[in-house]
Amino acid sequence: MTILKELFKDFEFNNKTEYKIKKVKGIELPKDYLDFMDEHNGGEGKIGENGYAKIYKLEELEQANEDYEISKYFQNYFIFGTDGGEMLLGYNSERKLYYAVDACNIDENEIFYVSESLLEFFKKIDE
């Protein structure tokens, strides 16, 4: 079993979609994220033994980023989900890093789970 399948064995994926998007608020979406979403279009559930996430459908990205006013607080960032609690999951297009940040304390100094690839990011969520 691949690492990704093992991490997502208890995760309920959404149905695939024909909806295509390459940018959110002018921010180019990373290839590994788009590949993952092309296959799964997000979902919700456990990641590994210790993690949990709700990954927004592609159709929901623009609205989620507007609702949280991400561009107001962070330049070159977009969010694509939550940890089921207070943490927002996202990507910084300038630094090319995945991150999590507390939705109630939107401060660039409060960023967690930083990694260069989506797979490594999901592994850190499981830690």
UniProtKB/TrEMBL annotation:
Signal peptide: none annotated. It holds the Pfam family SMI1_KNR4. Coiled coil: none annotated. Residues 22-123 form the Knr4/Smi1-like domain. This is Knr4/Smi1-like domain-containing protein.
